[in-house]
Structures are given as C-alpha cells and as structure tokens.
Design brief:
Structural class of chain A: alpha/beta
Oligomer: heterodimer
Distance between the termini of chain A: 25 Å
CATH topology of chain A: Alkaline Phosphatase, subunit A
Number of domains of chain A: 1
CATH architecture of chain A: 3-Layer(aba) Sandwich
Shape of chain B: globular
Number of strands of chain A: 17
Strand content of chain A: 15-25%
Largest sheet of chain A: 9 strands, mixed
CATH class of chain A: Alpha Beta
Number of helices of chain B: 37
Structural class of chain B: mainly alpha
Strand order of the largest sheet of chain B: 1-4
Helix content of chain A: 25-40%
C-alpha cells in the first residue's frame, strides 16, 4: 500500500498544508466542507498543533472505490427483541415455559435472569414477505412492503450485556468509556464531509429520553473534537447557540461577523499565523450555518404525500420527523446521520414489556423506516447511502420473571437490517439455533460489521488509523473482517 | 466463546487423535524420553516465542521445570492427565485456548501424539532441567530508561543572547541548523503571556501599565514571583492536574449520577499554592491513607484514584466495574507518572515496550487492595462544636427506637406490599432510580441493597410515618444530625485481595496468582521492603533513581509553556514515542527539578525566566521553511487558550469575575436543550450572584453531558486521563462565542464598564475596552474599524431591539441604543482570535 494512502501524515505534509492553507482561504471561495487541505493532527509522534477543521479529510483518496458515500444509522436503543420481530423459532414455541437446557447457559452471564429461566415463545404472528420471503412479524406491516430492498442479518453478535457499555461498543468498538472515537467520527476523520455549511456528523433523538451513555456515543474520543457528532435538537434552535442573541437581527449579525473578520485579518497580517485564517473561515461558516440549519429543519416545503409517507405530523418531534430530516441532511452532503429512538428495553415490567410497549415502539418507527427506504430509493439516493437499523444487542429466548412478559439482554444473537449503497439486498443472512440462542451460520460480530461498513465506504479498516499513546488505533481495534455476504 | 469454524477444527483434531490412537495403539506403552524426544521438538517449534529471548504469555518451554509449571495462565501440565493439561489444549486449540503454534506448519499428528504420551506417562524429566538464565531485558537501553544525567553545557557562538542554561541548549540546536532565535516580545505581550500561563487570567490594564513602566532591571523577575504567589496560580495548576486525574462531578456511564469529590479539587489547589514538593504531592495522592497517622487532608488526596467511573445501570456485575476501575488506575499511573502506555499490557504483553502482561498485573496488585469509601470532612466550625459527638448520641437513640420498631415489622411489611402493588406505571417511573429498579425485580431477584433502597424510601413516606409514629421519631432525630461534606477516598484493606493475571484481560479468566512488583526494566523497589504495598509503589514513583517521573513531569510543564513537549508524545516515553528534540535540556530540567526537592514553582520560574520563553511569537518566513513546527524554539508559539480559560478571560474583561478560590461546583447558565440527549435530565438551576461568575474550572461537570461551552473548546471527556488538550478551531466555537447567552452577558458587562467607568470620547472608550481585553492599545486601523462598527450599530438599533441586548439597570442618561451599540462592540472584542489566544 503506498504510504500516502495511510491516514497518518508525516510532519512535513502537515507543515506544507499549514503554509498552503492561508493561500487557500484567500484564493478559494469555498466552504470548509470541501476544503480538503486537512490540517489533520496526529496526536502522537508527529504532532503539530495544526488545527483540525470541521469536515476535513485525513485520506486523500479512499482505499478503494466507495460503494456508499454516507450512512443513516437508525439506532433502536434498548435492544429490540429479534425473537418477536424477525427471528421466528417454532421450537421455541414448542418449549415455551420450560427451563432452558443447561448446555446453553453454562459459563454465561446475564444482566438480570438466572440460569434456570424459562423459555418464552413469541405471541406474534410471522409471515414471509417479498420475493425473497424475508421473515417478519406482524408488528412491522410497513417494512413488509420494502422487504426485498433489505438485507436482514439474523446472526449479529456483540460482546457486552449492559446498555451503556454495549451502546458504546456498537458505536466505538470498545465497551469501555475510554475515549475511543465513534464510527461517525472515524468516518468524517477519514473522508471528510460534503456538507458545505452543516456538520459532517449529526445526531438526532426521539423517544422519552436520550440514549444511555450520552455524549460518549457520538464523541470523537482522541480524535479532534471537530469530528464529534453534533446533536440536532428539535425546535427552533437545532444546534446549541445557533440563533443570534436577542436584539441582533441578520443585518447586525452580518455586521458583527464582518467586524470580527476584518479585525482578525489585521491580526493575521501582523502575526502571520495561519490559524487566524482558519478562524476567519470558521466565522463565515458559522454565519452560513445560522441560515442553513433552520432551512434544513423547515419541512414546510415537503409535499403532503411525503409527509404522509413518513407519518410526520407538522410541528411534532418524532422518529418520523427525524427520518425525514435524515434524508434532508444527506441531501446536503452530511456524511453520517444517527437517529436514536429510545425505550426498546423490554424486560417485562409495566411500560417495558413485549405487549403494549413493543406495539408502541413498532408503531412509532415502522412506517417511517419503510418510508425512508422508499423515499431515498425514488430519489436515487439509496444507491450510495447505507441505511441500517438495529439496537445495541437483542433479547434472550428466555423470559424474565417479572410482572409482565419480557426478555433479558442477549448478546449471542440478534437481528439488524441494512440497505442501500453496496449492500446485497433481497436476502436474509445468518441463522440461529432452534431456540434462537446462538448464531449457527454467518455470525456477524460488531467488529466485522464496522470493517464491512468502512469497506463499503471505500476505507480499509486496517489502514484508517490514528496515533495515540504510542499506538496506531483503529475503529476495529485488533479485530474485524469484511463480511462478504453483505456486499452486492 | 467458541465459534463454528473453531469447533470444527477441534472436532477434526479429536478425530485425528483418536484415529492415531488406533494406529499407534501398540506404541502407547513405549516410554517417551524427554531429553531426546520432547525437548528437541519443543526447541525447534516453540522456543522462539517461549524461550530465553522471549516469553510470550510468561511461558517458556526450554526447560522441563518451566514447561510443566506454565506461564501466565497457570500450570501447563498435569502429569498423567493430558486432558487436563493446558499444553495439550494449546497445541490442539481446544478449551478456548489459541492453537499453538499459531501459524503453519502446525505440529504433526505424530508430534502431538508424542507429547500426549509423554504427559500420560507422567511427564518425567531429569530434575535438574531448569530454565537457562533469563536473557537481558529487551530494549533496556532505550533512552528514557537510562538514569537522568547532567550534561555539560553546549558551546554556542552567540554571546549576546541567552540568560541561563535552558537558552544554551536551545541556542546550540538553532545554531546547528543555521537559525537564530527571535527577539524578546514586548512587555505587554510578556505580562499577558505570563499571567495566562501561570494564573490562567489576563492582567488588568493597571498591572500592565505598572509592568511596562517599571524601569528596574529585575522587573520581570519580580513579576514572575508575584504571579507565582497568587492564589490563582494554584487554580491554574490544579485544572491541568485535574485533566490527568480525570476529575468530574458525576459517576459516568449511563445513569451518571452526581458525586461529591470537590474536596479533592480543593486539596489540589491548596497543594499547588503551598508549593508542596512533587514527590510528596505524588505520595499523598497515590497512598495518603497509608501514611503513618494520616491526616484528613492526606486521605482526601487519595481522591486522585477515585475519579474513576462507576456504572449504576441495573443488571451490572459490580466486580466487573471494580476491576475496570483498577485497570484504569494502573493505566493512569503509567501515563501520568511514568509516561508509559502500561495499559497496553492489560490483555497481552506490551507490543513494543518491556512491560509484560504479568508485570501489568503485578502493578494491578498494588492497587487492588483498596476499599472505596466516602470520607466525611467536618468543617473546623463543626469540629469545634463537637458535632461528631452530637451525632453519636443521636444515633444511639435511634438504635434504641429501631429495636422497638422491630416488633412492628410484620405489620410494616404488609403495608409495604400493599403500597407496592397499588402503584401505577407512571408512579413507579417517578420513583428514585434504585427504588424503581427494585420494584421492577421479582422478589427472588432482589439483592439486600435493592430491598434496603425500597424500605428506606417507603419509611420516608408521610402516611407511613403517621401509621408508625416510631418512624417519625426516628426521622426527627435523624433530621437533627449534623451533616458533613463527604469526598471519595481510598482505604487500604487489612487483608489484601488475591490478584491473578486476567487472561486476555478478561476478569473472569484467572491465570496465575501474582504479587505486587514493578516492571523489571525500571529500578527495583528497595529489597528491604518485604511485601510492597501501594505506599511503596507511591514512594517508588518518586525515588531519585526513577528516571521517568521527573522527566515526564518537567516535560509536561514545558508543554504548557511552549505548546509542545521536548518529548512530543508526552504520554509515551516508550519505544513508540518520539525521542526528545533536546535530550540534554530535558535531562537538565529533570535533574534541576529533583535537586531542588521536586520544587514546582522553582522549575517553572527557571523556565519562564529563560530568553527562550520570552521570545516573540510572530511567524518568521525563514523559520516557516526550516522549522515549520517550531520544534527548535526559534520563536514562541501562539496558543489558543484552554476551554475554561476562555470563560475566565471573558469574565475578567467584563469585570464580572468572582475570584473565589475553591469550593463546590457551580452552575453557570447554559443553553436550553443540553439534556435532551441524556438518559436522565440533570438538575441545572443557573446560579445567581457570585456563583454565576466563577472561573470555568468550578463549573459542574456531568460526564454524560459536559458543559457545552467548554466541550466545544476541547475540554476533555474526563473518562480517562488526558495528558494534553487538542486545540481545534471550528464554526461551533464561533457560534458559542458569538451567541451563547453567557458570552452575551460578558459583552454586556464589558459595555457597562466602558459606559460607567470611562470618561471621554468614543476613541478613549474603545481604547479602554481594547485594553481590558488585550492589555494593549489598538492600532490605528483597529481603532478605526471598531469606531466604524460603533457608528454602524448606533444607526442600526431601534430602541426596541436595543433594549433586548443592552446591559440591564444602566442609568437613564444612557439611551438603550447607545448601550446596545457598545455591547455590540464589546461582543466583537471578545470574539477576536487574539482574545482567546496566548501570544
């Protein structure tokens, strides 16, 4: 592999870029989003306090041609039950109420249940959908319609069974809160963003609360903070401090930015530090974001048909609304959009059970998920956008001894679905054993998923590295294998 | 966990084995000779990784004794029982072991069968087959492991530049490259630089004026001494130390509940202000609780290692997260004091540095014996009032009442059940987390802690107390108890825990037992120490023989004053780290530091007195070509201020700063919507009065949702030790300075000052505001641009729009438009690059 295709840059490269940066900012009328003169930092051996800017790429070119250019990750926080949605097990129905055979649970640990927990069949009806006959439960009637556009993987596996660590693992490849960058940060670090006046990595949230784990889930870890996910809130001010202060209208804000930048230019002339040029550009971009972000959030220009397709109710924050925003964000060139929808943690207490609670979660998400796939497809965006759906883990074939029906956290087998750029759709991959406890065929571990997604985005997961504490870190740590069956 | 393919391999091997057994049936009885059959085989196939040179997983197969004894995973051979012998599992890849040798060619069936038979026959070998002497430790000669030495001063050509030794080392390097140093910065720049570096606060215009006008030859030295004796010096030093200590005010993970540990922060500030020697500073934080007659302060100091995270999520295994904390403590000790990435050896031997996995767990063993309690810290007033005795008395009375209440227990339990059954979902979800968690668990699944949380909650309910008056009496007594501030500390257990190697870092997979020891590549703990403890480790970190701690410490100080360390990888002095740019200078500083009794103020004084430090930070074209990264220090560096300092300089310029040192964390205003993305909404009532205007370092820090105006400027996540801040430059930063309500408030403060305190025309007022912000006078073009802005704004504001941004409560003689226009100008000033930069 030629050296220049590595993400790490030599000190000389960086220096060169630092000196050319001034030229760029003066000569080129471009937004930071497309400025590919990375002032990328290596935090380790060859550091220079060259400053990283939003959306700049570490890689000059991708390692191989990218099949996908961007990702929408529909994160179902809490861990949806694959056994009630995708993975139907006749044998589990048959053994309903019996204690799980010990061979399954020897040496296994669980969050809540004990080794003698009883197996729990599903109460949901399953059917085969689409030409490929994808198995889905009655809870997902809208998804049925796009069954052939999906690649369903029933053999997902992860490492940790508590929510916080597992969410962190799904996002960063490490279960510990130890400052690892999230997927979206790695991606924007690697290939930048095409968004001219929006952040490259945006996080949206719906459901009764934020996802467990908080900002670490979209943090940039040891990567520069400019690669962090930026949470977009619902309402009039999606980005913190986006709105000008009270009493400052657009004209006065423009006067403000001009004065700041004129004075910064004087300082630049006196000191010669290219950082000042970067700051001038940052103020210009911030000013543009002040109008571009509200424009993005304003869905009044969408057709009634589109709103109905998603199930968006104007002015009401919802997962559906966020799905529509996700489409609008990627249209603007945003690289990675992550939607959290919380409250899938169905243990079996009132409000967290596999009856009404699961009905509600599915009702909140099913239509919009299907709509997003349909909408992207008809706009030609699905060709180079990956859409993926899943939680931090799945749920056990055993039921939990609680007031109502529920299942515990399960890491050995769960289901996710994928569609879009470079994904081989119209197929279901992977199998689990007769009670759905273990994967038996085509196990897809989180590390391998990360490697595969990067591959689709044109990145060799072994080569996207960052030097920190004397070591070249990567998203997949020392693991990760590209999962060929997922690829078209 | 086994996956499909591996199972298949195992199955094949077993098949192959049994097949062989049939074939070789008659050979089974034939005795296998260790010396002629086993040892040569192992020497050929195994000892390149498991021999005298390298001992992967601590295992060597070059002698019968070590072969049987095993490595990190424990005993490798059970004579007579191949099925129970780890060695057999390793060569077959069974029982979760990685198959050995890891690459082709594997052992042949015949070879496997030979080893198996030898074990079956009792693994007999001559007694004297001991491991040959261990090889020299690899990479022992690496520069950072060598003793600190004082080198002779280099010869330099130029005699008119330089003030002391530091400058000689720097100048010699510059001259060797054909470069010259920059001239000294002007006095305004110097006092602002010193003040920001040493205190984290800008100088006032009066201080600037006094220094600029001071004709004495020692004006600079006196300024440095004055700054070093300021109480704000301790704050500045402390905040940098708190990065290393991963300090925060909450527990982290998903629940991220609040914690009280600000007393530790106070301790750090105080320790720096008193100029506590760094060796003592280290010992008290690592093991203050174990010092003879440990004082409360020395115990508070151990909060250093209590800043680890704590997972309160339901369904977690407490031991798992305790172990994770200890692992973090080992890694943190490594990066903070030794500048080594010891954490890399948690799962396997360090890939580059001479730290084995076994040595990682030997260090782990030092830190594995602490309980993690809260320490109550009564105020002096409480102590004087005998509060401890008062509480004792109250508690005795409560005990009596509790005994009485026991009789009513069945009745109480029945009430509790009745109540629990009656709750609706909504009511349940409103309960405190531990209570809700308990109710969500079946009876059989509840731990004693669960039950306690529930019972305590129930006892506090109004109707329960009415029903059981004894409970009301108890509560009344308890309400009278004096309350003490608490802080998290370490407390050594009498009986140490056993420490084992965790195979591949998995705390459930125990390898051999280990005892406390330091890595062999470093100087040993004195042999007279029989069973070394955490205190011995603490003392060892700062023995004069330890070459790493002083180097790492002075290097971090250098980083603060120049923006880059002499060793650029400030947290990695190992083989993968970068070598020092000025090795002799690094050693000179380290030697001075230790020789002066680990005196932090003295060594920093030396650094800032140097001509190297005092240079101008202006870019030079010759340097840009020859030394673009300024590794040779031909000029000073321009550095964007740290996150919390940006708040501090704005507070200072606005005149709003409340310079109170120490105390609990505070809640300055933050934008709405910050907690939309956390699991629980955090309490955040914006402070009024003084606490609204405290320095950034006192802002309450929730790990799951840190203060946005600080995170955006690269404030660390406080989950692991941060040895260096990054310095990014982004549009979100611009939005913060431009629009965040707190910064608008600072702009209003500055405008108010200008309007109320400065007499004279616009030029005089703009100049005064400029001096408050930058210490210097504006240039003609700067002045002109600001006056233009002022005129624009006077014309732009209507009374109505002006009232929205004008500072409140100004005298009526000042029109809202005038006040708003000045606020707009002030807002420009605090948004300038120079405002958030140390020149």
């Amino acid at each position: 592999m030629p050296h220049e295709q590595h993400a790490r840059m030599s000190a000389q490269d960086q220096a060169l870029q630092a000196t050319t940066r001034r030229h760029f900012f003066q000569q080129c009328q471009v937004g930071l989003g497309s400025v590919a003169l990375a002032s990328l930092m290596n935090n380790g051996a060859n550091v220079q306090a060259a400053t990283p800017n939003a959306n700049q790429a570490a890689l000059k070119t991708t390692h191989f041609p990218a099949k996908a250019k961007r990702v929408i990750y529909l994160f179902m926080a809490g861990g949806p039950s694959q056994l009630d949605l995708f993975d139907f097990k006749p044998k589990l129905q048959e053994l309903n109420g019996q204690v799980i055979p010990e061979s399954y649970v020897a040496n296994k640990r669980f969050a809540f249940i004990k080794k003698d927990a009883k197996l729990l069949g599903t109460k949901r009806k399953f059917s085969k959908q689409g030409q490929a006959g994808a198995e889905m439960s009655e809870l997902l009637p809208h998804l049925h319609k796009v069954a052939d556009d999906l690649c369903i993987v029933k053999s997902m596996a992860t490492d940790v069974f508590n929510h916080g660590p597992a969410k962190l693992f799904a996002n960063t490849g490490s279960p510990q809160f130890s400052g690892r960058p999230s997927f979206g940060s790695w991606l924007t670090y690697g290939i930048g963003s095409q968004a001219e006046d929006l952040p490259g990595f945006v996080v949206l949230q719906s459901g009764p609360r934020g996802p467990r784990g908080g900002s670490a889930l979209w943090g940039s870890g040891f990567l520069p903070t400019s690669y962090q996910g930026v949470p977009f809130r619902s309402g009039a001010e999606p980005i913190l401090n986006l709105n000008s202060p009270q009493g400052i209208d657009a004209t006065r804000q423009r006067q403000f930015v001009s004065a700041v930048n004129d004075l910064n230019q004087l300082r630049l002339d006196a000191m010669g530090d290219p950082e000042i040029a970067t700051r001038i550009a940052a103020y210009e971009m911030a000013y543009r974001m002040q109008s571009s972000a509200p424009e993005l959030m304003d869905i009044s220009g969408e057709t009634k048909e589109t709103l109905e397709l998603y199930g968006v109710e104007a002015g009401k924050p919802s997962f559906a609304n966020n799905c529509l925003l996700a489409r609008r964000l990627i249209e603007k060139g945003v690289r990675f959009v992550q939607l959290y929808h919380t409250d899938w943690d169905h243990h079996g207490t009132p409000g967290t059970e596999l009856g009404k609670s699961l009905d509600e979660r599915c009702a909140e998400t099913d239509r919009a998920c299907a709509a997003l796939v349909q909408d992207l497809k008809r706009r030609g965006l699905l060709e180079d956008t990956i859409v993926m759906w899943g939680g931090e883990f799945g749920r056990t074939p055993q039921g939990e001894a609680r007031d109502l029906v529920g299942r515990d956290h399960h890491i050995e087998a769960f289901t996710m679905w994928f569609t879009g750029g470079g994904i081989k759709t119209g197929q279901t991959i992977g199998e689990t054993d007769e009670i759905g406890y273990n994967t038996t065929v085509d196990r897809l571990h989180i590390h391998d998923l990360h490697a595969t997604l990067l591959h689709l985005l044109g990145i060799d997961h072994l080569k996207l590295t960052y030097r920190f504490q004397g070591r070249d870190f990567r998203l997949t740590d020392v693991h990760g294998k590209v999962f060929q069956k997922l690829l078209a | 966990m086994m996956n499909g393919p591996r199972l298949l391999v195992v199955a094949c091997c077993l098949l192959a084995l049994s097949h062989n057994k049939l074939l070789l049936g008659e050979e089974a009885a034939k005795p296998v000779d260790y010396l002629t059959e086993i040892k040569p085989l192992l020497a050929q196939r195994c000892t390149s990784c498991h021999g005298a040179e390298t001992q992967k997983s601590g295992y060597r197969l070059d002698s019968a004794k070590s072969l049987i004894q095993g490595g990190d995973t424990g005993e490798a051979i059970v004579p007579g029982k191949p099925d129970e012998s780890f060695l057999m599992h390793a060569i077959l890849g069974t029982n979760g072991a990685t198959r050995m040798p890891p690459k082709d060619p594997r052992l042949t069936d015949a070879e496997v069968s030979l080893i198996k038979r030898w074990i079956e026959q009792g693994a007999k070998a001559p007694e004297g087959d001991l491991p040959p002497a261990p090889a020299e430790i690899k990479n022992r000669n690496h520069w950072s492991f060598q003793p600190v030495q004082r080198h002779p001063l280099p010869k330099v050509q130029r005699s008119d530049w330089g003030r002391h030794e530091i400058d000689a080392f720097v100048l010699a390097r510059l001259e060797a490259e054909g470069l010259t140093p920059s001239s000294e910065a002007d006095r305004v720049t110097l006092i602002r630089r010193l003040s920001l570096d040493l205190l984290g606060l800008p100088p006032s215009p009066a201080q600037v004026q006094a220094f600029v006008a001071d004709p004495a030859p020692d004006a600079y030295e006196r300024l440095v001494d004055q700054l070093l004796s300021s109480p704000h010096y301790g704050e500045r030093m402390a905040r940098q130390w708190l990065d290393l200590a991963r300090y925060a005010d909450s527990n982290g993970f998903t629940r991220d509940q609040p914690r009280l540990i600000w007393k530790y922060r106070n301790w750090v500030i105080e320790a720096f202000n008193q100029n506590m020697p760094f060796d003592q500073f280290t010992i008290e934080q690592m093991a203050g609780d174990m010092l003879p007659n440990a004082t409360p302060d020395q115990k508070i100091a151990t909060g250093f290692h209590r800043n680890t995270l704590f997972n309160e999520e339901g369904g977690t295994d407490p031991e798992q997260f305790r172990v994770e904390s200890v692992v973090d403590r080992v890694s943190t000790t490594g990066s903070v004091f030794l500048g080594l990435t010891i954490g890399c050896a948690q799962c396997h031997d360090h890939k580059y540095d001479p730290v084995s996995q076994r040595e990682f767990y030997q260090l782990f063993a030092f830190l594995n014996n602490a309980d993690e309690p809260k320490l109550e810290v009564p105020t002096p007033e409480q102590l004087a009032a005998g509060s401890l005795a008062v509480r004792e008395e109250l508690r005795n009375k409560v005990k009596e009442l509790e005994a009485e209440f026991e009789k009513q227990k069945p009745e109480f339990d029945a009430e509790l059940d009745k109540w629990a059954m009656s709750l609706t979902v909504e009511q349940r979800n409103m309960l405190p987390i531990p209570v809700m968690n308990t109710l969500n668990l079946a009876l059989s699944m509840r731990t004693p802690e669960n039950t306690k949380a529930l019972v305590n909650h129930f006892r506090a309910l109004e109707f329960v107390r009415q029903k059981f008056p004894t409970l009301q009496q108890i509560a009344d007594l308890q309400a009278k108890e004096p309350v003490f501030v608490t802080t998290l500390v370490m407390s050594e257990r009498e009986k140490p825990r056993e420490t084992h190697i965790h195979i591949r870092g998995d705390f459930l997979r125990h390898g051999i037992k280990v005892t406390p020891a330091v890595p062999a590549v470093l100087p040993a703990i004195p042999t007279e120490v029989q069973q070394p403890t955490r205190l011995d480790l603490a003392r060892w970190l700062v023995t004069p023989q330890n070459p790493l701690t002083p180097r790492v410490t002075v290097n971090r100080l250098w980083l603060k004053f120049f923006g880059r360390g002499l060793v650029e990888t400030e947290n990695d002095f190992g083989l993968q780290g970068s070598p020092p740019t000025h090795p002799e200078l690094l050693d000179w500083l380290a030697a001075e530091f230790v020789a002066n009794g680990w005196n932090l103020k003295a060594i920093q004084r030396t650094i800032v007195l140097s001509a190297t430090y005092r240079q101008s930070s202006k870019f030079r074209t010759d340097l840009a070509e020859m030394d673009p990264l300024n590794k040779l220090y031909g000029r000073q560096s321009r550095l964007r201020l740290d996150a919390e300092l940006i708040r501090d300089v704005a507070l200072a310029a606005s005149g709003l700063l409340a310079p109170v040192v120490g105390g609990p964390s505070v809640y300055p205003p933050q934008p709405a919507g910050v907690f939309d993305f956390t699991q629980d909404k955090k309490p955040w009532v914006p402070a009024t009065g003084n606490d609204r205007y405290r320095r950034g370092m006192y802002t309450y820090l929730w790990r799951s949702s840190p203060y946005p105006a600080m995170t955006v400027f690269d404030f660390p996540d406080a989950n692991v030790a941060c040895t260096r801040r990054t310095r990014s430059n982004t549009p979100l930063q611009s939005l913060t300075l431009a629009n965040d309500q707190t910064f608008v408030e600072f702009a209003q403060g500055l405008a108010r000052r200008v309007l109320l305190e400065v007499q004279g025309d616009d030029t005089a007022r703009v100049s005064a505001a400029f001096r408050w912000c930058f210490g210097r006078d504006p240039s003609a073009s700067e002045l002109q641009r600001l006056l233009k802005m002022l005129e624009e704004q006077r014309a732009a504001f209507t009374t109505e729009s002006a009232q929205k941004i004008a500072p409140p409560n100004l005298p009526s003689s000042i029109t809202p438009t005038e006040a708003a226009a000045w606020t707009a100008v002030a807002r420009v000033l605090i948004n300038l690059d120079e405002f958030i930069t140390r020149e």
